[in-house]
Amino acid sequence: MDGASEGPDFEDARLHERVLPAMLAVIERGDFSGPVMRKVANECRMSLNTLYSIVPSKNDLLLALAMHLQTRALAAVMAQMQPGDTDRDITRRAVHASFDEFTRVPGLALAILSATVRDSDDPDSAFRLATDSRVRSAPGLAAPFDRNTDSWRGGRLQVLTIGWLGTTYCFARGILTLREAREALDWLIKSAYLLPISPSAT
């Protein structure tokens, strides 16, 4: 049986209250290498077996952290929505808010994104992660797009997902300045909205 299919136990309060803060502390120290699970367990004063019962693997830990950051970013965007906001307005805020969350701690984006790329032979892994049922079912994660989900099947979600990952990774590596990264995100959104909406959305 594939243990990865079970994923993190998002219902376990210890994941949010102890495990994820401990992982952030490990990343912030620049210590995200070697026996990461053991380091996180030590940081949150939890036995390794207990940690594995909550999060089966390092990749599941990365997934849980990514979902936590994305959910927090999009929840803030949703809280600031105004009646006249368009989908494009909301998308722009969501893209930038997610960028801010993933880059607020040095090394955070690199730890998550480089591991996703390195541990997968699937070039579409980033899109598959973004559309994973566990990701889409996370509270508030897809909320900005729920009003017209079908419109994202024409390629917009793919463009935004892959482009956002590339831009965030390049900023974290120092390839792009903060200004260049934000400009790239804005161009990304403009490009995504030039794509035709899927016929299924009409």
Q: How would you characterize this protein structure?
A:
This protein is 61% helix and 0% strand. It has helices spanning 13-28, 36-43, 48-54, 58-79, 87-103, 108-118, 125-130, 133-136, 156-172, 178-192. The longest helix is centred in the middle third of the chain and has 22 residues, at 58-79. The protein is globular, with a radius of gyration of 17 Å.
List keywords for this structure.
202 residues, mainly alpha, Tetracycline Repressor, domain 2, disordered N terminus
Helical/strand content category: mainly alpha
Number of strands: 0
* CATH fold topology: Tetracycline Repressor, domain 2
Q: What general outline do the C-alpha atoms trace? A: globular
For the termini, the CA-CA separation is 41 Å
Protein name: HTH tetR-type domain-containing protein
Topology readout:
Layout: H1 13-28, H2 36-43, H3 48-54, H4 58-79, H5 87-103, H6 108-118, H7 125-130, H8 133-136, H9 156-172, H10 178-192
Brief summary:
This is HTH tetR-type domain-containing protein. InterPro entries: Homeodomain-like_sf (IPR009057). With 202 residues, the chain is mostly helical.
